[in-house]
Amino acid sequence: MNRKEARKKAEALVAQMTLEERASQLKYDAPAIKRLGVPAYNWWNEALHGVARGGQATVFPQAIGIAAAFDPELTEKIGDTVATEGRAKYNAYSAHEDRDIYKGLTFWSPNVNIFRDPRWGRGHETYGEDPWLTSRLGVAYVKGLQGSGETMKAAACAKHFAGHSGPEGIRHEFDAKISKKDLTETYLTAFQALVEEAEVEAVMGAYNRTNGEPCCGSPALQKILRGDWGFQGHFVSDCWAISDFHEHHMVTASAKESAALAINNGCDLNCGVTYLHIMSAYRSGLVSEETITESAVRLFTTRYLLGLFDGSEYDSIPYTEVESAPHLALSKKAAQESIVLLKNNGILPLRKDKLKTIGIIGPNADSRRALMGNYHGTASRYITVQEGLQDYLGEDVRILTSVGCELFRDRSESLAFSGDRLAEAKIVAENSDVVILCLGLDETLEGEEGDTGNSYASGDKVDLLLPESQRKLMEVLAETQTPVVLCLMTGSDVDLKFASEHFDAILQLWYPGSQGGAAAAEILFGDVSPSGKLPVTFYETLEELPDFQDYSMKGRTYRYMEKPAQYPFGFGLTYGNVRAVEAEISADNSPAAEAKPEDISLHITVTAENAGTAATDDVLQIYCKCLDSPYAPRNQSLCAFQRIHLEAGEKGTFTIPVPAQALTVVDEEGIRRIDGKEFIFCAGFSQPDQRSCELTGNHPVELHFHR
Asked: What is the set of active-site residues?
């Protein structure tokens, strides 16, 4: 069913409702209208990296881990799998008339905000700091969720529109002041792609104000969304964001004024209770009948597109699809692709036949929480790193374990002295051939305001340091003579200076999902080569960054940073040695000076070789910069990428299309246009910056292009 047909049916149904009935449907927990055969429907469901908060489901790596795979095809498969499980659960629940929260088909995912500052606790819900990577993965996930059938498989939602990227503690009253250039170039890029390319069914407004207007009642943002981009779906508020209008932003004086401001500016659905005042606003002349009707029609259009009234080809998906063997295998594959090798002095991959005893140490070694991230479902089994290694090694290698320290508390036993597990950790190390040290954070320390135990920072990080308890553990283990492999489980940048100086290898595992431990074991022992790349910059210090509340991009992310990174965006080692040997650029047509971006077609053909001794995946990355426009970002920007595979010693040639957008810049008025004539492109397996070249030992191939 196409949108025109679905809307026509929605209009006919809504026309039979009283105005009060129409208004009742604008809350997330829409009641039944029995006389019209309309069942109750709860719009609130989550699917950030698997169906969330509704019981058993496949738990994929957290979104930031999916981003590290740099694999849109994989991301689309994950979206399709999540939609399959969502349908399976919806079919079963609705057959039992269970229409509770987290049981519908409208998923409030993906989060395509930009991870502009490593302090932001919710950053791991996103696809990282780069607008192009975020847009490609966001489009892929939406396409996977929504499908291409006669009816929509599930409805995706792009959130949080717009300019939401911390701080969490003041999000309910915060005004993000963003220049027109930064808004277009950085903060809106992915949203536009999800609307125009993926036809995302819903968009969620953010809690904050952007340039003075609350995002869930913003004329300026609605003009962009529905006017400039032609968005046809429905708009939903973040949860209780509309009550912030009068309680925190102080832009209205009452709940009915807030309801009116939101619905008059395109917010169709209220996650919260403020739309209980819609009829009061109507009776006060603040809202028209036509406005209420239009929002109801938009919402029922979505329900018709999902086939919730006329049936769907997905109605037969059985409950046994939930956490099926193929879905678990996909979760494991995603975890493998997401793991980033940051340092390796040659110790990895480990060899089982060379080891007698392995020590597994650290608060995240046997932690389920460190697998999950936030907005997660419930797995039937979680394979921690410790369990993954135990399963992998069996009886062949002796395993000794120690928690070493707590995640952030200074002791494990309340009556003990501080650091009561440090001696045990040292003993384990002294009796082991190698130590697998599992440190990091979890959703209790970095996450959403109100959802974490990190109440002092509302889920944000105050610095880039690991908790003091873990820093002391690192120091103790560094004093031993035993090699240490650090497996870091975080959703964001932490300072790895000490680890990089004292430990033999570092693997960034993110929050790798229920199969994360199994994936880590196979990476550690070389069954699979690591191939993930950092979707965020790991900075040397916070001192080089602007104030957390400053939304200007100056000095932020790899595109605008001014100092070398500790570990750069796009960096990640493998067990092979893949490098670009040569490259050439070709234009399908000659771009005239007055050409529009969409009229230009470029391709870069790269010859790459794996000069190493292990087969591996790797990520071919293309970066570009306009050399003669004052509006170009300070540094080169990612403009294309492709995951490839090469056997040891193999050469391959790969042609990768370069989007026309690569030849554009955004001016100070926020207009994207072609400006300069001289461009530089770099093709390789990292950024072309000096730090990346130093870490990889390879240099991307540089190409010049004249328009």
From this structure: 238
